[in-house]
Predict the 3D structure of the following.
Amino acid sequence: MLQVSLYRYNPETDSEPFMQDLEVDTGGRDLMVLDVLEMIKASDPSVTFRRSCREGVCGSDGVNMNGKNGLACITPLSETVRNNKLVVRPLPGLPVVRDLVVDLELFYQQYEKIEPYLQNHNPAPAIERLQSPEERAKLDGLYECILCACCSTSCPSFWWNPERFIGPAGLLQSYRFLADSRDTATEERLAKLDDPYSVFRCHGIQNCVSVCPKGLNPTQAIGKVRNLLLQRAT
Amino acid sequence: MVTAVTNFGRSGVADWLVQRVGGVILLLWLCFAGAILLGNPDLGYQEWKAVFEATWVRIFSLAALLSLAAHAWVGLWCTLTDYITPRLIGAHANLLRGVLVLVCIATLFIYVVWGIQIIWGI
């Protein structure tokens, strides 16, 4: 029997959060953490968490498993369980709506700040804006982000200043548009990032890199944004 | 863009650059001072005084002192704005942080003036 410790909090009935200890019969199988959560929910429908695609594409079920953020649907028990114990908490640093569901408002506000859409001041061509294979290759490692928030909520700088520091997810997306040959708003984008908080609260501890379920490297992208800001300023 | 009135540079790039350039100057000065100390096991006050009588050593040491103060200021400002915030310790945080920022500025100012006095007084 797998020992599960689950973060529970219902603001309508609980005065404060608590950890609920449960035993789950996995039948010795190496299930995904999401499967375990589904088994718990089958016996207690009040257990609340987000989920959708169950294959690491939608980014809905980001949770903290045994101290490390990740997607419950693509995290096998063998990867996270130690001493037959699984501790599941909501993503840290954000307000809890209920149980494992967090309020992502601050996360999305930071994402909105970087204007995550292509901006081109030139007249639109008849068919499409073309890119060479080399220009397109610059977006690899950037466009794959699914905005699961695992990285930003593992970043202490984002915990301390979620209203001011854009966070690894937003900055990775920021560089995705700065690196795009079709985007002509580079100067405007960089001007909005040149303050002591938006980018420079990243101290390169790389928690974001270690938890990204898609294997992306936000720290590297932030370094490239910083280099662009440095080039612009000198 | 996020603005902060207590940040002198008002720019992340400026703060970042000051810390990096200051860090290199500090490293060079530490190598210089370390080489003198290690290269002269019987170093006394007279030998130390002779080294610091050279104007370039005084200017170099002043650059290191200012680098240390700038480095410390950026680091302390970052730390204070990380941990002394209404989010972490409540509504009185801004007032407390303001006081601590002033304490930091005053302390660094005193150390810089005192350091200049020492460098030119050896």
